[in-house]
Design brief:
Elements lengths: L11 E2 L2 E2 L6 E2 L10 H7 L16 H21 L6 E4 L2 H13 L7 E5 L4 H14 L2 E5 L9 H7 L4 E5 L13 H9 L4 E5 L11 H4 L3 E5 L10 E5 L27 H38 L4 E3 L10 E6 L4 H8 L3 E2 L15 H5 L4 H4 L2 E5 L6 H20 L1
Parallel strand pairs: 3-13, 5-6, 5-7, 7-8, 8-9
Antiparallel strand pairs: 1-2, 4-10, 9-10, 11-12, 12-14
Helix pairs in contact: 1-8, 2-8, 3-4, 8-12, 9-12
Amino acid sequence: MVNATGSIPQCHFEGASMLVRGKIYMDYQATTPLAEQAFTAMEPFYKELFGNPHSSDHSMGWEAHAAVEGARASVSSLIGASAEEIFFTSGATESNNQVFNSICQQSGSRSKILVSSIEHKSVLDTAHAVAELYGVEVILLPVDRFGLVEVSAYESLLDSSVLLVSVMAVNNEIGVIQDVSKLCKMAHGVGAIFHTDASQAPAAVKVSVTEWGVDFLSLSSHKIYGPKGIGALFANSAVKDMLLPFHHGGGQEEGKRSGTLSPALCVGFGSASKLLGEIGDEEKVRVKSLRELFIQLLVKRGVNFSVNGTVNSTHPGNISIIFFGVDASHLLARVSSFICASLGSACSSGYHSTSHVLNAIGLDQGAAESTVRFSIGRFTDALQIEAAADVICSAVSDILSE
């Protein structure tokens, strides 16, 4: 699919170029493009509908407030919650921080928090920070070679001393999907609070806080084709009084997070949530088929590789690949003119050590340093996949022949 001049042919998807600034975007788990519907919904709130949603004495404030509450309802509907259980935040990182800080301030006689060894840095770093601050112990739950929490080890660690358990629903690097419902039920069996970072989940699985039974759940808008800078924290009505204020001031968000909300960001998040709820099932099937096509093309070209994670319990758009004998950073540098992909979590881009996720699933340093994460999504099509596979296979061949 690369022509004689070395450029990728221009194709179109739903009226827009398949290329973003001349490149194939394969980093959807880092962030997603803003859905057109979300942009359209947001635009008026940067212009004529600029009222403060907390101004209760005039119509412009009422309009802004109504828009925010409509967005809250859309977000809650996406995960099967009630609107009263949704608190807007700046994103999942803030949501994670608020849960850990709130719960650990109320530890009582419980002294341990359990987190999976492949959590996002915003969980791992926060867990260690609050442990030092409030005198609780952090225990990392081991995972198997696929990234699934080892249930027997988890069970052996659960007792009346456990305060909080946090397990990411869908991993951001290798895409593994955890059995949140089972893990949550086990935690509740010893009276522990259960939290899940579900940032990657809505694009991968049906999220139902009722079926999962979780106490707290974190979301980020920009992982579901909404705007950056906003997310949400679900707090089950049975335990939401345990949520302590993270920001102090005017008492917005039921006093849990003071500060003026952005109607535009809320509306964009709500619009993206509503759209994903409508097309998500079909989208997951289509994206999974493209993932399978990409892997098939690599096999056809004779590339020596292995896919991290598990085939049957993986984000449909995640393709974490070990290219044996190839330095991943060298490969990405070779293809960067054509393809946007990553070594791992964008939120850990400042870290130069081997991924803790890849270490946790048992990869040695060589395999970890040969791993690239490709992630595809809504605006990926078969032509992009074919072009990307062609470029990658050629680059791998060139590197191995040097």
